[in-house]
Amino acid sequence: MINFINNRRMPAVLLVLAFLMVMGSFNFILKKHGSDNISVKAHPYGNQVKGELVWENRLKFQQLLDKYDTHVRMAAFETTLPDPLPGEEANVAHAADLLAGTILSPGKVFSMNLALGPYSRQRGFQDGPAYVGSQVTKTVGGGVCKIASTLYNVAILANLKIIERHSHGMQVPYVPPGQDATVSFGSKDLKFKNHTEQPIVIWADTNGNTLYIALYGRIKPPQVTWHHKVINRQEKQTVYRYDSTLAPSQEEVVIPGADGLAVKSWLKIIYPDHTVEEKALGVDYYRPMAKVVKKAPPQ
Q1: Per-residue model confidence as pLDDT tens digits over 24-70
Q2: CB atoms closer than 10 angstroms to residue 9
């Protein structure tokens, strides 16, 4: 499908286009492997953390681990926003501050909405970008889904039981499709259960546009690895925008866009006794994002 947009209409969609521009780089990651098996290791913005984290030598953090006897890092994950929009980075940093030091007792369920919400000005959140259906708009607390996605990944790697999780309507740039999570206070939540017999300490911090979240307990979890397969693609449409500054035959790609995807995800879990388990996580569906091209108006 091809659509044409006149320059006079562009101001109404600039925010959407700016955000979608961020997404284009991730679409390239999917396609460059030449198959529908997604390579998690190749992702440039969301990965498991193996090295030391900056807060792990801080006295306040060490005292918290001493108090709950939780000196084993169960899992850690980092996500980076390649080009944060206004308010997005501030909301992520604020949510990380609220999250750091949370204690999840044995048998209890963590709810992101209960722990961090409501995502309001009264709670210190700003306007930021958020998905509404297949559109991107501004809302107070926009950007906190980066916290949800990072928490989801670290909970998976710690082999905790996921109680509730929702994927985005379109791909996000900071984790592979199938590994994202979205929240909306009062409707969509991220919940996971501490099914172990030990308390778990949750810590989070940011460094610029990179978010780090880690879980600490008493026992190392089994080895958990992600696996994904694209089972369906929906071709993206091309939207042409007229630009009178271009030569008659000149075209310029503003946003590469992305195909819609249906992604099947599963986990491979290797226990200390070398027992191997595969756990199906279901299928996530992502709407296509339009490719936007500038071209000269018809003569």
Answers
A1: 333 333 433 344 666 555 677 889 999 999 999 999 999 999 999 99
A2: 10
Fill in the amino acid letter for 124: G
List 136's β-bridge partners, or say none.
131
> Concatenated DSSP letters for 31-89?
HHTSSSB--STT-SSEEE--S--GGGG-HHHHHHHHHHT--EEEEEEEEE-SSPPTTHH
- Record the pTM: 0.83
pLDDT per residue as tens digits for the range 76-128: 999 998 877 778 889 999 999 999 999 999 999 999 999 999 999 999 999 87
Q: Distance between CA 21 and CA 59 in Å, rounded?
A: 41
Q: How many whole angstroms separate alpha carbon 150 and alpha carbon 147? A: 5
Residue 115's Cβ-count burial label (10 Å; 0-12, 13-18, 19+) is middle
Cis peptide before 118 (omega within 30 of 0): yes
DSSP type of residue 122: G
Tell me the C-alpha distance between 130 and 87, whole Å. 11
Alpha-carbon span 37 to 176, nearest angstrom: 11
Other beta carbons within 10 Å of 174: 24
Residues 6+ apart with CB under 8 A from 192: 109, 110, 151, 152, 155, 160, 161, 162, 163
CA-angle at 76, arms to 71 and 78, nearest 5°: 145
pLDDT in tens, 119-145: 999 999 998 767 665 556 677 778 899
**Side chain identity at 138, as an amino acid letter?**
K
Least Cα distance to 242 among 3, 5, 2, 1 occurs for: 5
Select from 219, 217, 190 the least CA-distant residue to 203: 217
